Amino acid sequence: HPGVDPPARRPIIDMSYSAHFMDFKGSSIPSTMKKLVVNKLSPDFREAVCLRTAAVPTPGDAELLVRNRFVGINASDINYSAGRYDRTLKPPFDAGFEGIGEVVGLGLSASSRYTVGDAVAYFSSGAFAEYTVVPAKVCVPVPAVRPEFLTLLVSGATAFIALKRLGDLTKGETVLVTAAAGGTGQFAVQFAKQAGCHVIGTCSSDEKAGFLKSLGCDRPINYASEDLARTLRTEYPRGVDVVYESVGGSVLEAAVNNLANKGRVIVIGFISGYQSASGIPRFRGETLPVKLLQKSASLRGFFLPHFSGDYRDALSSMTHMLSRGQLVCEVDGGDLAPEGSFTGLESVFRAVDHMYAGKNLGKVVVDLAPPTVSNSKL
Ligand SMILES: NC(=O)c1ccc[n+]([C@@H]2O[C@H](COP(=O)([O-])OP(=O)(O)OC[C@H]3O[C@@H](n4cnc5c(N)ncnc54)[C@H](OP(=O)(O)O)[C@@H]3O)[C@@H](O)[C@H]2O)c1
């Protein structure tokens, strides 16, 4: 059967260890699992990725075996499947950036900090699988396996760290957030409000605009019904001080053209180009140096993996805010999607489509649902 590996036999494990470190007692670890594998490089996720059956991996010494319960969808899942992240990576390779679940097995040195049954979240590759082996050092203990915590790992952390390190926000400044109702945008809106700023947020529907209002966004702009550049020009003649920019192309142009003196544009992404062959949207940049100079403005790039030093602090701050009810972590589990909620690994495909159709409100999350134990070897 194409796409299905021969039934995997679990590698021999020293049973004196496994009795301690693998959850065999609950006999809940099967020998095989489902995972998503990039088989062919393409920004078309459905063309690039296929569902496979594989052996449940065994954790090494400093690793955890995590049974994923929720996995997060990111705009860059299609950049990854197109091979744009790591040019040396050749298919087949595993897909997915982040997951949250339960520790079901672990290596000896990992057991100094973790034990079977712990709830952990992680930002690491290979998350689109029922089970993932993750280095213990990249895992974050979480109070419970809830999708809200998953929203913080990449989406929340990006907004928190980018605004803190590159935003230089001061009270009273004006901040423009693009794709504001999405996974990371929702956090940028809230952190900019917490900093005492006036916040403008772009989105593509009235429902999303209503959601942005509920987050405290002062001026949601539904660009499907009003022109972004014109609205900025007429309502913000002094310009905006900071832009948290995720869309690229003409949206980036509008942002650059409507900057205040000493304005900062933080380049978070350029999703409008990701589905194209180059991955890069068209941008008319010849006059960019002139515009930046005339306004003493700057364009700043941000890439989360470069800020690992800020990561733990960001996560603990956000977890605190969440527990005190000071942070909305909106999750889109597909309840309103045409074919219903995103349940099971197969629905990752639909979840990616949902995001690229601009339909998601909040962070797109897939529920892998507790697997039924049918092929346990015990
Ligand atoms: N630099 C980093 O380290 C880092 C980390 C995480 C995310 N990001 C970036 O943050 C951005 C948002 O990512 P996310 O995962 O949080 O996704 P998201 O915002 O939850 O979803 C993407 C949103 O972008 C808009 N959109 C979708 N397709 C589009 C298209 N073809 N053209 C224009 N807009 C489109 C839609 O919102 P509307 O329809 O409402 O506009 C959609 O809801 C991406 O650019 C991503 O690469 C960067």
Q: Could you name the key traits of this structure?
A:
378 residues, alpha/beta, Quinone Oxidoreductase, Chain A, domain 1, Rossmann fold, seven-stranded mixed beta sheet, six-stranded parallel beta sheet, 11 helices, globular, binds NADP nicotinamide-adenine-dinucleotide phosphate, NAD(P)-bd_dom_sf, 15-oxoprostaglandin 13-reductase
Poorly predicted runs:
8-16
> Strand-residue fraction?
15-25%
CATH homolog superfamily of the largest domain? Medium-chain alcohol dehydrogenases, catalytic domain
* CATH fold-level topology of the largest domain: Quinone Oxidoreductase, Chain A, domain 1
Count of alpha and pi helical runs: 11
GO molecular function, one term: zinc ion binding
Protein name: 15-oxoprostaglandin 13-reductase
GO cellular component, one term: mitochondrion
Pfam family, one: ADH_N
Question: Can you describe what's shown?
Answer:
- By secondary structure, the protein is of the alpha/beta class.
- The protein folds into 2 domains: 32-145 and 330-367, Quinone Oxidoreductase, Chain A, domain 1 (Alpha-Beta Complex); 154-305, 3-Layer(aba) Sandwich (Rossmann fold), CATH 3.40.50.720.
- It contains 11 helices and 16 strands.
- Helix 4 crosses helix 10 (308-323).
- The longest helix has 21 residues, at 147-167.
- Mean pLDDT is 92; it is low at 8-16.
- Residues 74-76, 154-155, 158, 179, 181-185, 203-204, 208, 246-247, 268-269, 271-272, 302-304, 355-356, 358, 360, 364 line the site of NADP nicotinamide-adenine-dinucleotide phosphate.
